[in-house]
Amino acid sequence: MNNFTPREIVSELDRYIVGQKDAKRAVAVALRNRWRRQQVPAELREEIAPKNIIMIGPTGVGKTEIARRLAKLAQAPFVKVEASKFTEVGYVGRDVESMVRDLVELAIIMVKEEEAQAVRVKAEDLGEERLLDLLLPGEASSVASQGDQLESRESTRDKLRKLLRRGDLNERYVEIETQELKMPMMDILTPPGNEEMGSSIKEMFGNLFPKKTKRRRVKVAEARQILVDSEAEKLVDMEKVHTLAKERTEQSGIIFIDEIDKIASREGGHGPEISREGVQRDILPIVEGSTVNTKYGPVKTDHILFIAAGAFHVSKPSDLIPELQGRFPIRVELESLGEDDFVRILTEPKNALLRQYEALLRTEGIELIFTSSAVHELARTAATVNERTENIGARRLHTIMEKLLEDLSFDAPEIRERSIEIDADYVAERLGAIVKDEDLSRYIL
Fold first, then answer.
1. Percent of the chain having pLDDT more than 90?
2. Which of 169, 285, 329, 377 could bond 427 through an S-S bridge, CB–CB 3.0 to 4.6 Å?
């Protein structure tokens, strides 16, 4: 587990997310507490529960991005779910336990990739030998003696190995065999929308069905990759993967529950309100700490970190059932974004939007240059449209940038001009009329 200090965590989040200091500090402390918990004596370690967080703020201010970047920094399994998609037990739809199963599946993928990387060198050697077998089929000429045959074959194999490693054989074609599970009843056994069930069925009954061998003619470079991946998969101990993935899920998993305000019961107590409260009561034991059965075995949720988020325009956190409120002791309010924030979002982060578009058009040989006046005009436009229509925060910048560069992106392969400057006049010319017309803004931007 990474032992970043809270200050280092905030500094890393600052590279991608503008502002929201309080939210960054809260998640930084939550992540550091996980490391601290691992340092305390074992008998006390189990008693220390994670300090779950509720983020309160409008859409597009960075709630999801903060949680996602935190998980990446911690190298932890991370899953985002929408509370409004869950239904109360007994109703058709996704049950709340599926969020834990999804988390385990992601942990399996993470650990399997790490284990495959650990055996990569051996897998590359084995894959290379299999590829040389395909490039050098059969035996040497029967005219030569048996000793000469062996010597000649080894000499040829060594020559081929050198050519292969130099990349001289990459464009040649070879035939390889791949195997896939043939399950004719799969479509019937898997109802639409229940892919998880289908995956479980495939795993349970896979050994009872024959594997279909398929011959493919591919270039050597592709064949090498396929064979190395195949060897790596054989070398990976899946029992170890399952054990490590379960442990990582339980000790460092992060579940981000979005739109939690949509299931907050307000006044009343009839119809939809009852259903919302039912979903809250189903979520409660998972957040409190329970055991969820998965196809990889039981998984405890006691130390999974839960980060909930919602706009809370109509409801408020106190509208959640008291027991659930108590399991989210940390509450942070995220600020709405204005014109100055948009200027920073467009230019400062490592993955800044302007940098993304500049890189995309550079692939066409076009150097895109945004002047300072253009950046401020884009920010002003985004802030104006957010005020007049629904405020979707920084997401507005994506729609504005797409509209701004729509013609340029389409014509880019045929444009002869290699350097194009985007200034305030360019922005006003393409977006001005739409911004002035509120109805157009609502549907286009």
1. 19
2. 377
Beta bridge partners of 293: 298
Report d(CA 78, CA 5) in Å as an integer: 20
Measured N-to-C along each axis, helices 339-347 and 395-404 cross at an angle, to the nearest 10 degrees, of 70
Which two tokens mark 198?
């289908």
The amino acid at 284: L
CA-based end-to-end distance of the chain: 43
Rounded to an integer, what distance in angstroms lies between the CA atom of residue 321 and that of residue 225?
53
Spatial contact of 169 and 163, defined as CB atoms under 8 Å apart:
yes
Q: What are 109's two structure tokens?
A: 């993928």
DSSP H helices in 84-179: 98-118, 120-135, 146-166
Phi-psi domain of 193 (left: phi exceeds 0; alpha: psi -120 through 50; beta: other): left
Question: Which string of DSSP letters, residue by residue, matches 201-237?
Answer: HHHHHGGGSPEEEEEEEEEHHHHHHHHHHHHHHHHS-
Kindly report the number of other CB atoms within 10 A of residue 400's CB atom. 25
Backbone angles phi and psi of 428, in degrees to 5: -65, -40
Question: For 86-102, what is each residue's pLDDT tens digit?
Answer: 765 545 456 788 899 99
Non-local CB neighbours of 254 within 8 Å, separated by 6+ positions: 67, 70, 71, 74, 76, 77, 78, 79, 304, 305, 306, 307
The packing angle between helices 238-252 and 98-118, to 10°, is 130
Task: Give the pLDDT confidence score for residue 48 in this predicted structure.
Answer: 87
Residues pairing with 292 in the sheet: 299
Q: How many residues does the chain have?
A: 445
Closest CA relative to residue 241, chosen from 71, 110, 123: 110
Q: Which of 144, 136, 107 is nearest to 304 (CA)?
A: 107
CB-CB contact of 259 with 60 (8 Å): no
Tokens 């940390």 correspond to: 330
Alpha-carbon distance of 146 to 140, in angstroms, equals 9
The continuous run of DSSP H or E covering 173 comes out as strand 173-181
Q: Facing residues of 422 across strands?
A: 370
SS (H, E, C) 371-423: CHHHHHHHHHHHHHHHHHCCCCCCHHHHHHHHHHCHHHHHHHHHCCCCEEEEC
Residues near 142 by Cβ (< 8 Å), separated by ≥ 6?
A: none
Q: Is 201 exposed, middle or buried (0-12, 13-18, 19+ CB in 10 A)?
A: middle
* pLDDT tens, position by position, 235-247: 888 888 899 999 9
**3-state SS class at 440:** helix
Task: Name the residue with tokens 């077998």.
Answer: 133
